[in-house]
Hints:
The structure is a single chain. This protein is α/β, with parallel strands linked by helices. The chain has three domains: 9-90 and 325-517, 3-Layer(aba) Sandwich (Rossmann fold); 111-303, Glucose-6-phosphate isomerase like protein, domain 1 (Rossmann fold, 3-Layer(aba) Sandwich), CATH 3.40.50; 525-562. It has helices at residues 13-28, 32-38, 42-45, 66-76, 79-88, 122-142, 166-174, 193-200, 220-239, 247-257, 265-271, 297-303, 305-324, 331-345, 363-375, 407-412, 438-455, 459-464, 493-514, 525-539, 542-546, 550-562, and strands at 47-50, 53-56, 116-117, 120-121, 155-159, 184-188, 208-213, 258-261, 278-279, 350-356, 393-395, 419-424, 432-433, 436-437, 483-488. The radius of gyration is 26 Å and the shape is globular.
Amino acid sequence: MAINPPVDATKTPEWAALQKHYDELQSEGISLKQWFADDDARVEKLSFDAGDLHFDLSKNLIKPETLQLFADLAKAVKLDERTKAMYTGVHINNTEDRAVLHTALRRPIEDEGKYIVDGQDTVKDVREVLDRIYAFADKVRSGEWTGVTGKKIETVVNIGIGGSDLGPVMVYEALRPYADAGISARYISNIDPNDLAEKTKGLDPETTLFIIVSKTFTTLETLTNAREARTWLLEELKAAGAIDGSDEKNAEAIKRHFVAVSTNLEKVAEFGIDPNNAFGFWNWVGGRYSVDSAVGTSLAVVFGPARFEEFLHGFHEIDEYFANTPFEKNVVVLLGMLNVWYRNFFKVASHAVLPYDQYLHRFPAYLQQLTMESNGKSVRWDGTPVTSETGEIFWGEPGTNGQHAFYQLIHQGTQLIPADFIAFVNTPNPVKDGDQDVHELFLGNYFAQTKALAFGKTAEEVRAEGTPEEIVPARVFTGNRPTTSIFGVALTPFAVGELIALYEHITFVEGTVWGLDSYDQWGVELGKQLAKQITPAISQDDEALAAQDASTQSLIKFYRANREF
Length: 565
């Protein structure tokens, strides 16, 4: 298969122009305080709106003219061509020879017939699966679908790992206020037995529905947990006198309490799940891009089809904005280029995501997979070595918790850490402490932190407060610590869809500049292969143990000496 090589961004005149610009900024001295003073219109020039999200880039280490240089580089690496290729189903996932069509998951029904890929009407097929999911969700929510004893489902337990877990659990936590059918969700991912033990604790088996999410229905962690969940269910139902433990009653219970998100209907049936209750997705949907596919079935059940549609509309809003807005005004493109700016020119290694909304407490973990599994690579999409640094270490915690943990390093440490601050104007839980609006107290921190990081505090200002001279250096803040403020109206299903699509496309922009296939993940494979070889050595196979390296042998011997059965 012939693969068109990526443009080497570092060899373009546009990269050289950006390097020259960087050198000039360093030479004249970067000072956000001065830049704000010199340009009354700076904030206006560096503020953008996409969907109902507002973006303030003014506290970044750029000038307004930097944006055109970003746009020029995006054009030089043919971002427009690659975006069109992705949206239309060209196989841009080279190593797996697959299209990359997560954008098709949220296209409106009016787009049926417009996106035929490899002979498949992608939008038509997506809508057909969604219709089946919605019909199922309505049955569960209304009580028409019951457990084996006729009781309404009260808890959905999603069993998956990676993209089959991180996305759904993040969105579930983000949208908890919208759970309106008396149904809650739990998520099991880790093969560690403690995960399943804790997540099933306190559950009523008669009102619990398990959703097993595995496209191939062969994922080791997921299927191990699924079998354990099946055993738990049957044992608990029998102990409660709900079933007699006969093969017939067991089979009936499994069909009422288990459904699947999978395309391997044969293995689904072998497990005991009715294949009619299996919802599929396609090989052009990568795991970390799949929360808006059937992988989100638990969300459709908890929040309802109408809310799930709003969620999809949020994605599509950003998809359309990204594809149709000129680069120099396209905040999605500019944020991707901004990350390249920091990674390749400032040599920054990490990137903090700091949501000032407790409901988004799982968002940084979700982004870790989205960004680092996509762009944590050292070869380009044609197999040649990369020509610059790639990938950022994404991490974060909700504010204000992070302020009392790691903000010290961001403010006064020796590393430059760009940070995205995310907040919403409205809260579903307005509270007052006396006369103080607590949400406004919270947002006061959101505003204050970016101000402190940008402008800092000089020694003169510290001295003016009467600080003893020997303590002055410890209380100085250098400022010029870059942040992007993302401000939404409310954390709705639409807004969550927007946020996810925003970071999906930011990741794509970076990958395009670096020449990466952002849609494979071969780096996760070797450890899985070795685990299969090593597991027999742990307790019984001395021959397998002897085949291991000295360190692994030593660790296994420690295990054998101390395991209590």
